[in-house]
Write a structure and sequence with these properties.
Chain lengths: 232, 749
């Protein structure tokens, strides 16, 4: 298993109130697969993903990614883990506003050991002609393309996407999903994606439904659908 | 208005930032009130003293006594008084100049003890008395007599008690003056008699009146010597160098501080309003008036300006008296009273209020002008890209370089603030070092560099023949340019094969003494180049003489033209083989009575060493202040950069950037601006230094070179870099404190 999570717990304590955000989570994902996490707001999707991405830590349990138990890593090791293995795509793109498209991608390629060529990834997301634009001069969908290019330029083993289409319209969303699928095929990148939209699950190999910090359903999808054929 | 509760909260949240701005304002007000206070008080004291005690306009000695001085007084509408002077050697290195008590001119002011009444009494110059241990009531043995010290005295023509008028530094350990009754001079040999003159008509040009007076003297067949106008008399004028220096400093330094505070407060307020655009829009929509919001945002700059202005001014007031008293220990004037000027305090408070108020007002107005709808959408504009950023073509650079450049260019005003701040701190710091360096250079140059003599003897009368063993002869005459009597200098005839005068060309090769050489400060002042023929008026006979200048000597030993003595004598129609002075490598046994002055280089060395002590501490203080200002400025800018980049820093952390990498990107982005600011500071400093020295030259006839020592520049640079490192250290924590959730929670963009 590429991702192997079991008995993962996480709670926030504020005053006397203990908020159990993740209760005994267990999930698995194979290398090269696309996984989708579904669930209502506040169910703990982001928290789970952040722990897998090495941004946050679980309280107890096991989180193994590519054979490494990341709950045991110290902060510096976690930094290296993120630096070498993980690509992030956010709902609101998080591009650096005063850097051009090309430079935003360099933010990541700058620190990776064997990055892909910046122009190549720009071409892969069909943004090669906007390399010198600033984020503000791009549409939301275009910004998300840049953010995907930025995430894949280091050729990560695992790409984590937290509601990548959450701020986009239907058509644009579909093209972004298609792009992610292409990345998965072309580079063999394992992808874990959070979404509110159950229809999107059709393109995933595995689907995890989260409710109140528990996985209520983990399904294997044998017949994945190409993104352009998904409708909602 | 409940909104105003926020003001204190805002100030508290960014405590260090506002404290930094406050410090700049305090420094500005403080320097203004102190510098203006000292210069006004000192100027007041000097003016009151010189006017009240009838400072002379000129003095001179004569070959024969003026027969009818009353007649001459009437004819020239002046007061003439004659006094006696005798240099009593107390030891090998200590001279006390005894002066006879005068009644009409240069009236002594007793500043401690009592007036002279009986015989055997003396009034002493306080610095001399203190340095050599002669308190009031003690006795002193001088010129073979014992005097009882009955008091301390200030003299209008010895405010800065130099032994020779052409010296630069006083040294109470080597020289001082004392006032005794006229009768005490009986029995002393070779007493000099000196005439002081003061014109009654203070409105007419004193120079003209002086020239006419001299003609009258010549008309009576009297030849004068040692003629010195008050304007060329450093003993009387030197204090004005400090007064003017402080007066000049009292404007640009505070102005720079206020300007910097203006810029930074403008930036801070602007960013605050921008980030609160949505709230402002909402408040507008709910019926708040622009005036009310304006008042709210103006509260912060005004609060800072008033607090800073009041604190600076109030802190300054108690430091004025001790500073003036410290200066008075150099410049001997009676301290009548020290006034603390209310209007200075008012200026010290109102100027920052005006500066900060106006700049903030303009910024706030331009932001609040927009419509509520526009404001409510406002968040977006804050990430706009300016034309400069857009124009940048950075393809070729490394990522880190690109990032740093973009970071700095993101806000032109912030860039300007950092640049100006670092430049002015560097200028101020370099200023101190360069003054010290100039003094040091002039001194080294005039002792070791140019002259190889140990003693200089100037004779009252022409001498004939050859110099004794180990000495060389010279002849000197004072000259001035045809239309500017204020510039006075010596033309000196020297032995053509002199071993004592060693001049160098600017290229560093030795200049022969068998030609006419001009020293660089004089050449610069008069605008003379090698090859020029120039005409000057001889002070002695008022006639013009023309000299052909062969070379400019790179020597700051003073303002001189040197030429072969034979040529000099021929031109001035002086007898062959005559001379007026000796340069000697050892002490010569010449009776004091034949001499009009002596100079010993080792005494100068001592005086210089004495001066260097306070000089070093002055430079240290200036460096410290510059570093504090630099620290404030760099810290303010860096903390702004961090705040603006919270999201980016957070993102970098998520992407796996290491602490050091983030710190290097964010904190080091200012490096090139700081280096540029420092480099630009050097010529700015040189130019302002040159201007100041030029002023000084005109004012007290003292020319100093602006010599920028690479060593001191390196020291200053190191100090600035150290400051930079310190501010980075302070800010590193802030960078580390940015959490990864910052970016995760970030909304739009
Ligand atoms: N730093 C925190 N401190 C306290 N509680 C937190 C913190 N972060 C998240 N939570 C809580 O944890 C729960 C899960 O949050 P999480 O962000 O994982 O939800 P989510 O499933 O991603 O929701 P959404 O779909 O709205 O993004 C929420 O109830 C939230 O209030
Ligand atoms: Mg979430």
């Amino acid at each position: 298993m590429f991702i192997d999570v079991s008995s993962l717990k996480k709670s926030y304590i504020s005053g006397a109130v203990v908020n159990e955000v993740l209760k005994e989570i267990g999930m698995e994902l194979d290398e090269g697969e696309i996984g989708v996490i579904l669930g209502p707001s506040g169910s703990g999707k982001s928290t789970l993903m952040n722990i897998i991405g090495g941004i946050d830590r679980g309280d107890s349990g096991r989180v193994i990614v590519d054979g490494v138990e990341i709950n045991n890593l110290n902060n510096d090791q976690l930094t290296d883990y993120r630096r070498e293995q993980i690509g992030f795509v956010f709902q609101f793109y998080n591009l650096v506003p005063n850097l051009t498209v090309g430079e935003n991608i360099e933010v990541v390629s700058n620190i990776s050991k064997s990055p892909l060529n910046v122009d190549e990834v720009l071409a892969a997301v069909q943004m090669q002609d906007k390399k010198h634009r600033f984020p503000r001069e791009l549409s939301g969908g275009e910004q998300q393309r840049v953010s995907i290019a930025r995430a894949i330029v280091k050729n990560p083993k695992l790409l984590l996407c937290d509601e990548p289409t959450g701020a986009l319209d239907y058509q644009t969303s579909r093209s972004i999903l298609k792009l992610l699928q292409q990345v998965n095929k072309k580079y063999g990148t394992t992808i874990l994606m959070i979404t509110h939209n159950a229809a999107i699950a059709a393109m995933a190999n595995r689907i995890f439904k989260l409710r109140n910090g528990e996985i209520v359903e983990a399904a294997l999808n044998q017949a994945t659908v190409p993104a352009e054929r998904i409708e909602w | 208005m409940p909104l105003n509760k926020r003001v204190l909260r805002i100030l508290k949240e960014n405590m260090l930032r506002y404290v930094g701005i406050l410090m700049l304002i305090i420094l500005g007000s403080y320097t203004f009130v102190v510098a203006a206070g000292i210069s006004q008080n000192l100027a007041g004291l000097v003016t009151t003293f010189t006017e009240g005690h009838m400072q002379e306009d000129l003095s001179f000695s004569t070959d024969k006594a003026i027969a009818d001085s009353v007649e001459l007084e009437k004819a020239s509408n002046s007061i003439i008084e004659e006094y006696m002077s005798f240099d009593a050697a107390l030891s090998d290195s200590l001279t006390l100049r005894l002066l006879s008590k005068t009644e009409k001119l240069n009236i002594p002011a007793v500043i401690a003890g009592r007036e002279l009444s009986g015989p055997g009494e003396i009034l002493l110059d306080p610095a001399f008395a203190r340095a050599n241990g002669y308190p009031v009531g003690s006795s002193i043995l001088a010129a073979g007599k014992t005097f009882r010290v009955v008091g301390y005295v200030s003299l209008p023509h010895y405010i800065y008690p130099l032994k020779n008028v052409y010296d630069i530094m006083v040294s109470p350990n080597n020289f001082g003056v004392g006032v005794i009754n006229r009768e005490e001079f009986t029995g002393m040999d070779n007493v000099s008699v000196i005439y002081s003159v003061r014109f009654n008509d203070r409105t007419r040009s004193l120079n003209q009146q002086a020239a006419q007076f001299r003609e009258r003297l010549h008309g009576e067949g009297i030849t004068e010597s040692g003629w010195i106008d008050i304007m060329n008399n450093k003993r009387a004028r030197m204090a004005w160098a400090s007064i003017t220096g402080l007066k000049t400093m009292s404007v640009p330094v505070p102005a720079a501080m206020f300007l910097l505070s203006c810029l930074i407060i403008g930036i801070v307020i602007w960013r605050m309003i921008r980030s609160e655009a949505v709230i402002i829009g909402t408040l507008y929509a709910q019926g708040y008036r622009r005036r009310e919001l304006m008042r709210h945002y103006m509260a912060i700059p005004l609060l800072l300006a008033i607090t800073g202005g009041v604190m600076g001014s109030v802190l300054a007031l108690p430091s004025i008296r001790p500073s003036v008293m410290a200066m008075v220990s150099y410049y001997n004037v009676p301290v009548v009273d020290i006034k603390l000027s209310f209007s200075n305090v008012l200026i010290g408070i109102l100027t920052p209020v005006l500066f900060l108020g106006l700049s903030s007002y303009l910024v706030i107005r331009s932001e609040l002008k927009r419509s509520p709808a526009e404001l409510m959408k406002g968040g977006k504009q804050k990430t706009g890209v300016n034309a400069l950023e857009r124009a940048l073509k950075l393809e070729r650079f490394k990522f880190s370089t690109k990032f740093k450049l973009r970071e700095q260019l993101r806000s032109v005003s912030r860039l300007l603030f950092l640049f100006l701040g670092v430049s002015s701190a560097s200028v101020f710091m370099l200023f101190g070092f360069t003054i010290m360096n100039s003094m040091d250079y002039v001194f080294k140059n005039s002792t070791g560099g140019t002259y190889r003599f140990e003693y200089e003897y100037a004779f009252k009368e022409l001498q004939y023949g050859k110099a004794p063993e180990g000495a060389e002869v010279f002849s000197a005459g004072r000259f001035y340019p045809e239309n500017d009597e204020g510039i006075e200098f010596y033309v000196t005839g020297v032995e053509p094969d002199s071993m004592i005068l060693t001049l160098q060309s600017s290229a560093g090769s030795p200049l022969p003494n068998d030609q006419t050489n001009i020293t660089k400060p004089l050449a610069d002042r008069l605008g003379i180049k090698a090859g020029d023929s120039v005409t000057f008026i001889n002070k002695q006979d008022g006639k013009p003489y023309t000299f052909h200048i062969d070379a400019v000597a790179d020597s700051y030993a003073g303002q001189f033209i040197f030429m072969p003595i034979a040529e000099f004598n021929a031109q001035l129609k002086l007898p062959e083989n005559s001379y007026t002075g000796l340069w000697s490598t050892k002490k010569l046994d010449i009776p004091d009575g034949r001499l009009s002055g002596t100079k010993s280089l080792s005494e100068t060395t001592k005086a210089m060493d004495e001066l260097l002590g306070p000089m070093v501490s002055m430079v240290a203080v200036m460096t410290l202040i510059s570093c504090v200002v630099g620290l404030i400025i760099i810290y303010l800018v860096t903390s702004l950069i961090i705040e603006e980049n919270k999201n980016t820093i957070s993102l970098f952390k998520i992407f796996g950037y290491r602490r050091r990498e983030i710190q290097s990107l964010v904190l080091n982005s200012s490096t090139f601006v700081i280096v540029a600011g420092f480099i630009v500071g050097i010529p700015v400093m040189a130019a302002s230094m040159g201007a100041m020295y030029g002023y000084l030259g005109a004012m007290i006839n003292l020319v100093l070179p602006t010599i920028i020592s690479p060593l001191y520049v390196a020291v200053c640079f190191a100090a600035i870099l150290l400051t930079y490192q310190l501010s980075k250290l302070l800010c590193a924590k802030k960078v580390n404190a940015v959490s990864m959730s910052e970016a995760l929670k970030a909304g739009m963009e």
